[in-house]
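Work Package 3 (structural annotation) set out to generate three-dimensional models for the target panel prioritized at the project kickoff. During this period the team completed the workflow that converts sequence records into discrete structure tokens, so that structures can be stored uniformly alongside our sequence database. As a representative example, we reproduce one entry of 156 residues exactly as it appears in the project archive.
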Amino acid sequence: MKIEIGQKAPSFTLVDSDKNSVSLEDFKGKNVVLLFFPAAFTGVCTKELCQTRDELSFYNDVNAVVLGISVDMPFTQAKFKELNNYNFTLLSDFNKEVSTAYDVLCSDWVLGLKGVSKRSTFVIDKDGIIRHKEVLENAGDYPDFDAVKAALTKLK
């Protein structure tokens, strides 16, 4: 199903890097930024999440929670989070259900590998409505964080 701005965000529950269940509904009343990324320990993904880590005070100031989502196992994400000192939640979509629900599952990646999340960003408002969406077809492209920040600032 194609996800459009203005529609209700698909609900989900995933396991985080600490092996806890986390649901989108846990963040009612807060804005949520979903950062889908292809794979832990890859160059652009590390850069993207490090920038998010370094700018987390902005997200906190606009009442936003950041959730990083990839198809990596929770154990892989735990090590990735630890080594990079990420200060936000990483969620495992190992079964690819959320990537499919948000229409961001990549059928062909690098080296003939299949089934990772496309680098994508969604801003969901405190009522669960999608207010910003960016889905990048090329995993080497970088998200437009200025657009994410502008969307969140409008929601403040």
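The radius of gyration is 14 Å.
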